[in-house]
Amino acid sequence: MLKMTNFIDIIFEPLQFEFMRNALIIIVFLGVLCAVTGSFLIVQRMGLLGDVIAHAVLPGLAIAFYLGIDIFLGAFISGIFSTLIIAWIKEESKIKIDVAMALVFSGFLALGIMLITLLKSRIDLHSFLFGDILVVTVTDVLRTLIITFFILTFIKLFYKELLFYTFNPLGAQAVGLPVKWLNLMLISAITLTIIASMQGVGVVLVVSLLIAPNITAYLLVKELHQMMILGAVFGSISGVIGIYLSYYLNVPSGASIVLVASILFLLALLFSPTQGILTRPEMLYKFRHIFRIKIKN
Amino acid sequence: MLEVKHLVVNYRGLMAVDNISFCLVPGEVVGIIGPNGAGKSTLLMAILGLIPLEKGIVQFHSRTLSTQLKQVAYIPQRVQIDWDYPITVENVAMMARIRHTGLFRSYSRQSKLIVKNALERVGMWELKHHPIGELSGGQQQRVFLAQALAQEANLFLFDEPFVGVDKKTEAMLFDVFDELKSEGKILLVVGHELRETTREYDRFLLINKTLIADGTRQEVITATNIQKAYGDNVIFLEGNAKND
Lengths: 297, 244
Prior knowledge:
The complex is a heterodimer.
Chain A: H1 7-12, H2 18-43, H3 47-67, H4 71-92, H5 97-118, H6 125-130, H7 138-157, H8 159-167, H9 169-174, H10 179-218, H11 224-249, H12 253-271, H13 283-296
Chain B: E1 2-11, E2 14-24, E3 29-33, H1 40-48, E4 55-60, E5 63-64, E6 72-75, H2 89-94, H3 98-101, H4 109-121, H5 137-150, E7 155-159, H6 167-182, E8 186-190, E9 203-208, E10 210-215, H7 217-220, H8 223-230
Parallel strand pairs in B: 3-8, 3-9, 6-7, 7-8
Antiparallel strand pairs in B: 1-2, 1-4, 4-5, 9-10
Helix pairs in contact in B: 4-5, 5-6
């Protein structure tokens, strides 16, 4: 396959399969969605929270599955609940938020695994953790489309309030913005993003989509909305390239998406015009400085 | 008039603010001084209702302050802000107009003009498209000063505004204080060290959990009061104020 010389064919050949079309559509939506919600996580220094929620949905999945209700509802409640516990631990004790997150993360995952065993649930842990974008159905695509539309509308409507709240939470509270609601809305948006991504990329890899494309963008732009737009482009591109790589090289799709996103980040880290390690303005001076010290020694 | 009555704040079982009462009138610039951990910032946050009160009332013009927060401009401590946040100078200052604008709307032309004037007042309009992370400490503080001005508030609460700023910004802050004072605003400023507490303030509140002294510089900065607030480890120089 790789020897195919015609570039157009390389692009279009996989599109004859429905599972490839579904996978590509859903990953573009997820790229956009994760950019918007993930950017808010990053600017609040809450990158780990995506990780926590992604794993904390498991007990909810298990219970909902057992009770026969919509598993996504169970996942949503469970994810939100985990963030409330983190906030509660932080408020009521001297324990810092990073430790609280690590604790809740592993605690919820353990509870989920326990419930799956005890309730003899048929939830496939492997697909929960790693997903499989090549088995997404039209229903999955539609669900993701609705969630994406819903969250983008919400963020657009409350953008200036969310910007204020995430930049200066105390200041936002001081002018009387409803900060508790804004926070709950953000957490709900992140939880919904994770639920939308679960089937496709799995909970382990959704964390990468929430973070990698957006920090890549963060190194290149100077405003939050630009970070979201560029992050969406990077996320979607990583997704599409990852899926093609997975198709042609016969490697796991989730892993290749994450690797492409990580490589893009590495490129920005090294070569960003303003902040790149090798390209930022003061680097030339630094290189000279290091060189001079070496000569002296 | 700002009335603070019997304010008590408990923080995780520790008394942070213990029964503080005072009353400020329009046109007063008041410095809050006291040692580290005396509860100065906590007092500001308690006044604004940012932390739960154990007891006490805060009223502004005879009505509960928390119902009229639009009247208040609050500048938090530098450490509360993530200076690497991807945002430009102009957009930070624009936040001042959020309550005047309301939900689901974008900032009006008038709001943009007010923000422009405020940024010009502090000499930051030329840098309006710069990310705040690229500014010096003094410039960053001036952006927040512009934000406070653009809020068109009547009560100004500054938490350690002089930390990490240059002489130019310091002078500008005092200029603005004078201006606001002449417009009849009330200013409550948490000081960082006693050095700043010079002629610029009308009145001082010396606190260490409780209110130790309240009055003019001569009345507050005395050997006895300073010792009460700071303990025995402070060397008090006679030349600074009259001994009582």
